[in-house]
Amino acid sequence: MTTLAKPANKPAVAHFSSGPCAKRPGWTLQALEGAFLGRSHRAKEGKARLKLAIDKTKAMLGVPAGYHCAVVPASDTGAYEMAMWAMLGARGVEALAWESFGAGWVTDITKQLKLKDVRVTTAAYGHLPDLAKVDFNCDVLFTSNGTTSGVRIPNYDWIPADRSGLTFADATSAAFAQPIDWPKVDVLTFSWQKVLGGEAAHGMLILSPRAVARLESHTPAWPMPKIFRMTKSGKFMQEVFEGETINTPSMLALEDYLDALKWADSIGGAKALAARADANANALNAWVDRTAWIENLAVVPATRSNTSVCLRIVDPAVTKLSLDAQAAFAKAIAATLDKEGVANDIAFYRDAPPGLRIWCGSTIERANVEALTPWLDWAFGVEKSKIA
Q: Is-contact 357 148, C-beta < 8 A?
């Protein structure tokens, strides 16, 4: 077959990784010059910087009064593990899984915590389970946005206000880019390195008053590592949620997060961040709609992510190949574009169906998404010519 001519224009920034994600537009190392370094994070100034990050986060996300927010170790994973280890076991659990991270929480619940009263509700990649059948007498665990499947919940309407159990939302690739209906959420976690393009290793844990009541009324049946403890003598450790972190945070990474929040505030806050992600995803999906060889992995349009957009290759010459060969084909496209300096790290996640995963979050510029799409067509043509 005849391949397309190589496009003339490249994206100005080739960073389309789904985590850690692209830095904010205009970012340089000079943004970190004010970092509180070489001092204890427990010093007055250090705690003030951590508290500032917490307060700015709550303000930008519209977190209601009475909710608590903490900087915690080990990224979104650490935050979600803290919540599970500290709060589960008081009642039955329903865990929803439609991609790899949700499946990982299921493994921890059943294999590590070894809870017995567990209902696992799954859906294949590209789909959501039937949310109308979720039992809210249980504690319910879910991902707001499936980073490895590109499938998000369309809204929070399926969660009743008068539920008996707690809701645990893993929102690592949703926070700041998708609306959060706070009265429907008891635990929400995310990491700095996703929508705001911050540095890794730190997570954010947000708790409702109902979640705090659970902490104070429930004693887990298993030993609790220090890093997961949020109560002392049965009382909520308020200080952890006011900047006195459980372990030593990176004040350099903190400064980077504060810089990202400052940038976000300067462009209009959470609404502007979501609008940027929507514009990026719309630009990519417009190309998908007019391109025969690829389609969105998320089947229902209302469930398509505006941040971690996952695509699958549907060209017959590729789909007739073995699954391993399809995976190799997709990886070859990603490698070709990486080598050209056009798109870094856009291969599918290792547990997901073969395809491409392109980050469209708020730190991405729409012009770069639009510049990328001709290169996707070109790279596909190059790789297909090798199997035709």
A: yes
Same domain, 234 and 325: no
Structural domain includes residue 8 = no
DSSP secondary structure letter of residue 99:
S
CB atoms within 10 A of CB 123: 18
Q: Which two tokens stand for residue 205?
A: 């844990």
CA 119 – CA 51 distance, rounded (Å) = 38
CA dihedral sign of residues 275, 276, 279, 285 = negative
* Boundaries of domain holding 309: 268-384
Q: Residue 190 in contact with residue 361, Cβ under 8 Å?
A: no
Per-residue burial over 258-284, b = 16 or more CB atoms within 10 Å of its CB, e = otherwise: bbbbebbeeeebbeebbebbbbbbebb
Decide: pTM greater than 0.70. Answer: yes
In this structure, what are the phi and psi dihedrals at residue 112, rounded to the nearest 5 degrees? -100, -55
Residues 6+ apart with CB under 8 A from 316: none
In the numeric block, the tokens 């427990």 are attached to: 42
Chain segment 220-268, per-residue pLDDT in tens: 999 999 999 999 999 999 999 999 999 999 999 999 999 999 999 999 9
State how far the alpha carbon of 164 is from the alpha carbons of 31, 90, 248, in Å. 45, 11, 36
- Residue 34: burial class (beta carbons within 10 Å; 0-12, 13-18, 19+): exposed
Q: Is-contact 249 71, C-beta < 8 A?
A: yes
Q: How many domains in the chain?
A: 2
Q: 4 pLDDT band (50/70/90 cuts)?
A: confident
Strand partners, 202: 73
Within a domain: 23: no
List, for residues 6-32, the tens digit of each pLDDT value: 999 999 999 999 999 999 999 999 999
- Please name the residue that has the structure tokens 């389309």: 16
In angstroms, the CA 347 to CA 27 distance is 25
Query: What distance in Å separates the CA atoms of residue 337 and residue 380, rounded to the nearest whole number?
Result: 10
The first and second tokens of residue 299, run together, are 């089947």
Cβ atoms of 67 and 182 closer than 8 Å: yes
Mean pLDDT computed over every residue of the chain: 97
Q: 288, exposed or middle or buried, with CB in 10 Å at 0-12, 13-18, 19+?
A: middle
Instruction: State yes or no: pLDDT of 49 exceeds 90.
Output: yes
